[in-house]
């Protein structure tokens, strides 16, 4: 009987990144980093494993109860693979609270793990750009974070009408539940979890879930609908909403107008956010194409996370942008560039005895920052050219007996379908010029 082989399939909900996928991932990360750094944010990183307690405190029951990958280590400690980065960044900031100059502007692109049912825009392992600013109590932090979030999409070439940023404030929901619907804290908590899930369930399921939590209020569903559909103009008519909360929204949106962002940002009280730590403005960014329903970004202000580790409180505001949802967005809007290997120069080996001469030339190109793939065994020219074509190389550097004797190289441009013999310096210059284009 034949020996059973192991599967080459990757674990459910994860991705193998082959070189062509890695080129895309690196492209995504490089644009993200470029924009975030242009706002003065500095990169940090943390461990993939944290104590489970870190998430028990404020991450919320959906993730901690159902989605977290956790285990007990050999020393009996309860450990979790990070499902999100916010508790880690809060822990790290709290550990140096006194030393760090404020405001603290940090970013990171961690891989995160959640035991989810994989689907479009939803995997078990994803990478997430996290951008957070700490120590700014004014909504200037939100203005910066929103403008940075939009600039990332613009840097990928996104048209203004391809996405929308939707904002609400936690106090609206709190006041409406507490003073408008007169819910007890546990009921308010349960209804907010139902609202967070609303887009993923049917209307009937939604209504029966709300009625189960609020059995003695027949108007609850109607009032919640009124709240969810409210706008800035009629927000004051919603029962329970205070003048203070209304002013917060009003003033943020008037500044967004001055910033020139009002046309892509909506006030939307249906933004709930599933995490327990948010205390202020909360927001999400959505693709306007109905193909991508899942949010690209999710974020908000959290005032009490640092306080889990320290006697001092420090307000943080930030977001997570997922690589899976971003790529879906870019693909939907035809914004993924053709990322080939074309800048690499290929040097075929026409005869074993030319190997050292080829190597000298390869070194010279590499010294000038041009990547070179040098053939290591001599094969028929056709085979070597077909290899270069499959790899997507544009440049082929031919070194034959004649070229070596005269100190020249023949440069073949696969894109232009041309070929010319030059001195090494001219060949270098030609490749360099074309590459910069
Ligand atoms: P989140 O809403 O859970 O927020 O995630 C942010 C974004 O990450 C989502 O909008 C989505 O694009 C992506 N994402 C989340 N889960 C998955 C998944 N299973 N598969 C693919 N993409 C996913 C947070 O994690 C907050 N900690 C963000 C934050 C940072 N808030 C303040 N600072």
UniProtKB/TrEMBL annotation:
<feature type="binding site">
    <location>
        <position position="132"/>
    </location>
    <ligand>
        <name>L-histidine</name>
    </ligand>
</feature>
<feature type="domain" description="Aminoacyl-transfer RNA synthetases class-II family profile">
    <location>
        <begin position="13"/>
        <end position="348"/>
    </location>
</feature>
<keyword id="KW-0963">Cytoplasm</keyword>
<comment type="similarity">
    <text>Belongs to the class-II aminoacyl-tRNA synthetase family.</text>
</comment>
<keyword id="KW-0436">Ligase</keyword>
<dbReference type="Pfam" id="PF13393">
    <property type="entry name" value="tRNA-synt_His"/>
</dbReference>
<feature type="binding site">
    <location>
        <position position="114"/>
    </location>
    <ligand>
        <name>L-histidine</name>
    </ligand>
</feature>
<feature type="binding site">
    <location>
        <position position="273"/>
    </location>
    <ligand>
        <name>L-histidine</name>
    </ligand>
</feature>
<protein>
    <recommendedName>
        <fullName>Histidine--tRNA ligase</fullName>
        <ecNumber>6.1.1.21</ecNumber>
    </recommendedName>
</protein>
<dbReference type="InterPro" id="IPR004154">
    <property type="entry name" value="Anticodon-bd"/>
</dbReference>
<dbReference type="InterPro" id="IPR004516">
    <property type="entry name" value="HisRS/HisZ"/>
</dbReference>
<keyword id="KW-0067">ATP-binding</keyword>
<feature type="binding site">
    <location>
        <begin position="277"/>
        <end position="278"/>
    </location>
    <ligand>
        <name>L-histidine</name>
    </ligand>
</feature>
<dbReference type="InterPro" id="IPR045864">
    <property type="entry name" value="aa-tRNA-synth_II/BPL/LPL"/>
</dbReference>
<dbReference type="GO" id="GO:0004821">
    <property type="term" value="F:histidine-tRNA ligase activity"/>
</dbReference>
<keyword id="KW-0547">Nucleotide-binding</keyword>
<dbReference type="InterPro" id="IPR033656">
    <property type="entry name" value="HisRS_anticodon"/>
</dbReference>
<feature type="binding site">
    <location>
        <position position="128"/>
    </location>
    <ligand>
        <name>L-histidine</name>
    </ligand>
</feature>
<dbReference type="Pfam" id="PF03129">
    <property type="entry name" value="HGTP_anticodon"/>
</dbReference>
<feature type="binding site">
    <location>
        <begin position="84"/>
        <end position="86"/>
    </location>
    <ligand>
        <name>L-histidine</name>
    </ligand>
</feature>
<dbReference type="InterPro" id="IPR041715">
    <property type="entry name" value="HisRS-like_core"/>
</dbReference>
<comment type="subunit">
    <text>Homodimer.</text>
</comment>
<keyword id="KW-0030">Aminoacyl-tRNA synthetase</keyword>
<dbReference type="GO" id="GO:0005737">
    <property type="term" value="C:cytoplasm"/>
</dbReference>
<dbReference type="GO" id="GO:0005524">
    <property type="term" value="F:ATP binding"/>
</dbReference>
<dbReference type="InterPro" id="IPR015807">
    <property type="entry name" value="His-tRNA-ligase"/>
</dbReference>
<dbReference type="InterPro" id="IPR036621">
    <property type="entry name" value="Anticodon-bd_dom_sf"/>
</dbReference>
<keyword id="KW-0648">Protein biosynthesis</keyword>
<dbReference type="InterPro" id="IPR006195">
    <property type="entry name" value="aa-tRNA-synth_II"/>
</dbReference>
<dbReference type="GO" id="GO:0006427">
    <property type="term" value="P:histidyl-tRNA aminoacylation"/>
</dbReference>
């Amino acid at each position: 009987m034949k020996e059973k082989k192991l599967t080459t399939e990757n674990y459910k909900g994860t991705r193998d990144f082959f070189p062509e996928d890695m080129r895309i991932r690196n492209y995504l990360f490089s644009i993200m980093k470029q924009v975030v750094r242009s706002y003065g944010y500095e990169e940090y990183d943390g461990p993939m494993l944290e104590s489970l307690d870190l998430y028990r405190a404020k991450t919320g029951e959906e993730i901690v109860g159902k989605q977290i990958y956790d285990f007990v280590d050999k020393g009996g400690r309860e450990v979790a693979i990070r499902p999100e980065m916010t508790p880690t960044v809060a822990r790290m900031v709290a550990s140096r609270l006194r030393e760090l100059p404020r405001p603290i502007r940090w970013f990171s692109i961690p891989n995160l793990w959640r035991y989810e049912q994989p689907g479009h825009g939803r995997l078990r392992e994803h990478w997430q750009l996290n951008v957070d600013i700490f120590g700014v109590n004014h909504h200037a932090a939100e203005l910066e974070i929103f403008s940075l979030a939009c600039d990332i999409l613009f840097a990928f070439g996104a048209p203004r009408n391809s996405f929308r940023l939707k904002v609400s404030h936690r106090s609206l929901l709190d006041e409406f539940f507490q003073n408008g619907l007169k819910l007890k804290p546990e009921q308010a908590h349960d209804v907010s979890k139902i609202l967070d899930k609303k887009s993923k369930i049917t209307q009937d399921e939604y209504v029966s879930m709300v009625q189960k939590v609020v059995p003695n209020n027949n108007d609850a569903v109607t009032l919640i609908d009124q709240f969810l559909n409210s706008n800035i103009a009629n927000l004051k008519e919603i029962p329970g909403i205070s003048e203070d909360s209304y002013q917060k929204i009003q003033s943020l949106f008037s500044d967004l107008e001055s910033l020139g962002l009002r046309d892509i940002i909506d006030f939307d009280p249906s933004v709930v956010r599933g995490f327990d730590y948010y205390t202020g403005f909360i927001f999400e960014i959505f693709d306007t194409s109905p193909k991508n329903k899942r949010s690209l970004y999710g974020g908000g202000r959290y005032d009490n996370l640092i306080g889990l580790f320290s006697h001092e409180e420090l307000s943080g505001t930030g977001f997570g942008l997922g690589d899976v949802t971003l790529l879906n967005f870019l693909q939907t809007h035809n914004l993924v560039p053709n990322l080939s290997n074309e800048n690499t120069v290929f040097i075929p080996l026409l005869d074993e005895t030319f190997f050292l001469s080829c190597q000298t030339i390869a070194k010279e190109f590499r010294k000038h920052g041009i990547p070179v793939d040098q053939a290591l065994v001599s094969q028929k020219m056709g085979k070597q050219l077909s290899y270069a074509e499959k790899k997507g190389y544009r440049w082929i550097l031919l070194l034959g007996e004649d070229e070596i004797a005269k100190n020249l190289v023949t440069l073949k441009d696969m894109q232009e379908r041309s070929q010319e013999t030059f001195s090494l310096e001219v060949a270098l210059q030609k490749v360099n010029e074309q590459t910069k284009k």
